[in-house]
Amino acid sequence: MNFKDQWRFVRSNMKRSKSRIFMTVLATAMGVTFLIVLASVGFGLHSTLIADILQDRSVTQMQISGIENDDGYAPITDEEIAELEKIDGMNAVTRQQRLRQTPRFSIDDYNGSTETVVTHFPSELKAGMELAEGDLPEKSYEVVVGPHFIENIFPKDLPADAEIYDKEGMLNEDYKYDESLVGKEIEMVVEQNVDNEIKEHTITLTITGIVEPPAKNWLQDQQVYISEEVLADVEAFTETSRGAVISEDQPTSGEEVEGYDNVYGYADSLEEIQAIMDDLTEKDYMVYSAASELESLNSVFTIAKAGLIFIGTIAILIASIGIFNTMTMAVTERSSDIGIMKAIGAHPKKIKQIFLLESSYIGLLGAVIGTVVAFVISILLNIGLPRIIESAFGQELPEGFQFSSIPPSLILISVVICLIVTIISGLKPAKRATEIDVLKAMRREM
C-alpha cells in the first residue's frame, strides 16, 4: 500500500465525518492563532525597541571616562586620543571640553544662558553628527547650536508674571524666537570676578548650523558648540582654565584642568564593540557601552518570547484532546475497513501510518488556517491599538511602533509544535488500530 493509496483512504474516510473533522481543525487553528498572536507581541515590542535603539549613533558608542592608575584616575589627553584612534575597528574618537561657567547668549531682543562645549568637529562628523539645518563651522568664531537651544532664550523685556512654559513644560509660542538661527550673529557674554567685582567680556559668534535632534525624543540638546579659538579667547579674559570664575568660597576654582571632559569612541559596527572594549579594559581604560545593555535587552526579550510561546503551546495541547477523540472515533468507525486491510495482508505499520497521516493532516490544516488568521489579527492590532491608546489615554505612540510582529521563525516554530502535538495525539489511536482483531472487525465488533 503506497502513499497515494494511503492518502486516498484518508480523504475518503474524512469526508464521512466532515462536521467532526471541521470542529477539530477549528480547535487546532484557534490554538495556533493564540500561540502566534501571543508570541507576536513579544516579537513586535522587541523589534520596535531594537530599531529605536539602532537608529541612534550611540549604539556603537563607547564612553571612555579615563585611565585607572596608582592615584586612582587620569583624564584622557591628546596623547591617549591618538592611541585610541589607531585601534582596529575604531571609526572615530570624539572629545569635548566643557566651559566652566554658563555664558549668557543674546540674539536680537532675546537672551538666555546655556551650557557651552568645545568640540572637535572633524571627529564629530566622522562619528555621525548630522545637521538639521545649515553647515558646520569653517571659521574660528562660527558655531553650531543644539536643536533645543531656541527653547532656552527669551525676550529681554519679558513681564515678571509671564507664563513662559505651557502645561507640557514647553516654551510658549508667544515667547519663542520665530526666525531662523542659521546665519545669525549671537553675542556670548562670559564673566570673571576681579577684586570682588564682576567683569564681563562679549564675544560675537555666527551660527552656521543646528544639530540634528537626538533619536530619543526625551533627550534635550541646548548646547552651543564652540571652537578651541573661542575657548582661548575666554581663557585670555578669565585667566583661568576653561573660563572658570574665581570664587572666594572655592579657592581651587581657577586651577588648571587637564584632559577632556567627554571622550567617546565609535566602532565601525556593533559586532566590533566587545573586542574594542576588551582591548581598552586591558589597557586600564574605564569604558562603558550601551551595547552591553542591548545584549541584556535581547536576553530579556528572548526569555519573554520563549515564555509566551510556551503559554501559547498550552492552547494547542488543549486542542490535542479533540484530535485524540476524533482519531479514537475514526478507529472505532473504521474497524471493518481495518479488518479488511489486515485480511488482504496490510502490514500493521501501514495501518498505523494511515491514522498518523490523518492526524498530521488535521494539524497541518489547523496550522495553515491559524497562521492566516493570526496575520489578520496582527495587522488589526498594529492599526487599531495605537488609535485606541491615543483616544483613550491621549498618548501618541512613536511613528512605526509595532505591537505585533510575525517573523518566519515564529511561523515555523508554531507549525512544528502543532504537528508534533497532533502526531502525538494520534499515536495511541493509531496503535489501537493495529491491535484490532480481524475476525471481530469483520463482524463489526471490537
TrEMBL record:
Keywords: Cell membrane, Membrane, Transmembrane, Transmembrane helix. It is found in: Cell membrane. Belongs to the ABC-4 integral membrane protein family. InterPro entries: ABC3_permease_C (IPR003838), MacB_PCD (IPR025857), Macrolide_Exporter_MacB (IPR050250). The chain crosses the membrane at residues 21-45, 306-324, 361-385, 405-427. Pfam families: FtsX (PF02687), MacB_PCD (PF12704). It comes from the Bacteria. One of its GO terms (molecular function) is transmembrane transporter activity. Residues 22-282 form the MacB-like periplasmic core domain. GO terms for cellular component: plasma membrane. It is a multi-pass membrane protein. Signal peptide: none annotated. This is Acetoin utilization transport system permease protein. Residues 309-436 form the ABC3 transporter permease C-terminal domain.
